[in-house]
Amino acid sequence: MRIKASDTQHLASEWRRVVGWLVPAIEMGGTHRPADVLDLVISGHAQLWANEDAAGVTQLVPTPLANICRYWLGGGEMSALKALDEPIEAWAREQGCTRIEIQGRRGWERALRGYECRGVVLTREL
Question: Looking at residue 91, which CATH number applies to its domain?
């Protein structure tokens, strides 16, 4: 279920409960700290999703040709993460999204059905 930013008390308690699952994905990206992600959720620039055993973070990315729901961060038990996919997809459609993207390690390609690899993100630190 999506944790609404407007429910600040619930968001704070859920964040404390799930942030440990998200830290490996946050650190892997190397662009944000956990507090930065929480700030994005509070400001409405990202959405926190959680169930009993997993959590994920999405962002809406409007582009000229598609409105994208980017599944940016995830952590917890794999089956519980997969269970977040359906509510995220339904919500994304309600927001006018025509595509869901997953940003993460290559293992997600094997773990999730219905997604295709359209490229790889390559990075080099400067």
Answer: 3.40.630.30
Check: CB of residue 26 under 8 Å from CB of residue 35: no
- DSSP character for 44? T
Q: In what order do the strands lie in the sheet with 67-76?
A: 2-3, 47-50, 54-62, 67-76, 99-102
- Secondary structure (3-state) at 105: coil
User: Would you state the structure tokens that stand for residue 96, as one six-digit string?
Assistant: 């006018």
Do the domain assignments include residue 119?
A: no
- Walk along the chain (126 residues) and give the pLDDT tens digit of each residue: 899 888 999 999 999 999 999 999 999 888 999 999 999 999 999 999 999 999 999 999 999 999 999 999 999 999 999 999 999 999 999 999 999 998 777 777 777 778 787 777 766 667
pTM attached to this predicted model: 0.89
- Note whether 59 and 101 are within 8 A (CB): no
